[in-house]
Amino acid sequence: MTFIESTKDADALTLTIVTEYEAPRERVWQLWSDPRQLERWWGPPGYPSTFEVFEFEPGGRATYYMAIPDGSKAWGWWRFIEIEPTSRIVVDDGFAEEGGAPATGEAGRMTATFDERDGRTRMTILSRFASVEQMDELLAMGQEEGMIQALTQVDAILAG
User: Fold this and answer.
1) Structure confidence by residue, pLDDT tens digits, 50-93
2) With 80 as the cut, is the pLDDT of residue 127 above it?
3) What's the Cα-to-Cα distance from 110 to each of 32, 62, 157, rounded to whole Å?
4) Is 107 contained in some domain?
5) N or C: which end of the chain has fewer CB within 10 A?
6) Count of alpha carbons within 13 Å of 37, Cβ hemisphere only?
7) Does residue 98 fall inside a structural domain?
């Protein structure tokens, strides 16, 4: 992985992370469209994910948990808003109760885009927060660092 940049914009309530991979766009797309591949990198090293529901279509949902080293689970949910095959995925996302039901609190929106250039794929993940409070809370919890660490696992998947 070539890490390009990570940018926080408090005025726009966004966090943008840009990476680039030695793989065609269709292959990088599979890392998102196949839940078994997604499980291999969604979450920082040592926090493996399990997707229990994965309805990969507009209006579909996903529920997952990350296994925490202390034995607990951190649950999350997605609602697929837009899917443009090999180009773009938009999901609303948030924390979930055990079992995957959305927890109370604000949802964010994550957009992943994929641009191929000379056989390499640039992936941009834009997280839009619902409020300054949500942005501050998630960044304090390590969202930026965790996402960058998670993305370091992608090269091994692409090579395998």
Assistant:
1) 999 999 999 999 999 999 999 999 999 999 999 999 999 999 99
2) yes
3) 13, 13, 22
4) yes
5) C
6) 16
7) yes
- The set of residues, in sequence order, having a beta carbon less than 8 Å from that of 2 and lying 6+ positions away, is 19, 20, 21
Question: How many independent structural domains does the chain possess?
Answer: 1
- Write out the residue range of the structural domain in which residue 80 sits: 35-116+137-160
63 domain residue, yes or no: yes
Question: Which residues on neighbouring strands pair with residue 109, listed in sequence order?
Answer: 92, 128
The CATH number of the domain holding residue 54 is: 3.30.530.20
Asked if residue 126 belongs to a domain, the reply is: no
82-91 as b/e: b if 16+ CB within 10 A: ebeebeebbb
pLDDT tens digits along 1-18: 799 999 999 999 999 999
CB 33 within 8 A of CB 51: no
CA distance 15 to 134: 12
- The mean predicted confidence, pLDDT, of the chain is 96
Instruction: Report the C-alpha gap between 90 and 56 in whole angstroms.
Output: 11
